[in-house]
């Protein structure tokens, strides 16, 4: 099975994540093989979502990276 996130999956993921996290969130697909999609709010990339296929079941993993310098700004 293809691990690329399809356009339909990207729309569904965006609808789901907008409802759960932030209505301004956008899912932007990449067009390379076995690639994840990027999660953006405005111009900032918050993280990536990957498609996981295991034993015929599909799930999605959302990974966010927080840099230490981003946390220093909060002090």
Short description:
With 75 residues, this protein is of the alpha+beta class. It is built from two helices and four strands, in the order αββββα.
Q: Could you state the oligomeric state of the chains shown?
A: single chain
First and last CA, distance: 46 Å
Neighbour order of strands in the largest sheet: 1-2-3-4
Largest sheet: 4 strands, antiparallel
**What is Rg?**
14 Å
Strand fraction band?
35-45%
Shape from CA axes? globular
What is the arithmetic mean of pLDDT? 91
Helix/strand order, N-terminal first: HEEEEH
Number of continuous helical runs:
2
- Total individual domains: 1
Briefly note the structural class of the backbone: alpha+beta
**Low-pLDDT runs:** none
Q: Estimate percent helicity.
A: 25-40%
Please tally the β strands and state the result. Answer: 4
Written account of the structure:
- The protein is of the alpha+beta class and about 80 residues long.
- It has one domain (about 5-70).
- The chain contains two helices and four strands.
- The protein has helices spanning about 5-20, 70; strands spanning about 25-30, 35-40, 45-55, 55-65.
- The chain has a four-stranded antiparallel sheet.
- The chain is globular, with a radius of gyration of 14 Å.
List keywords for this structure.
75 residues, alpha+beta, four-stranded antiparallel beta sheet, 2 helices, 4 strands
Provide the fold topology.
Blueprint: H1 7-20, E1 25-29, E2 37-41, E3 44-54, E4 57-64, H2 68-72
């Amino acid at each position: 099975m293809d691990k690329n996130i399809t356009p339909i999956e990207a729309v569904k993921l965006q609808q789901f994540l907008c409802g759960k996290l932030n209505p301004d969130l956008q899912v932007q697909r990449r067009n390379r093989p076995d690639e994840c999609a990027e999660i953006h709010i405005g111009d900032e990339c918050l993280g990536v979502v990957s498609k996981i296929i295991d034993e015929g079941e599909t799930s999605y993993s959302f990974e966010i990276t927080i840099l230490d310098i981003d946390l220093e700004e909060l002090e």
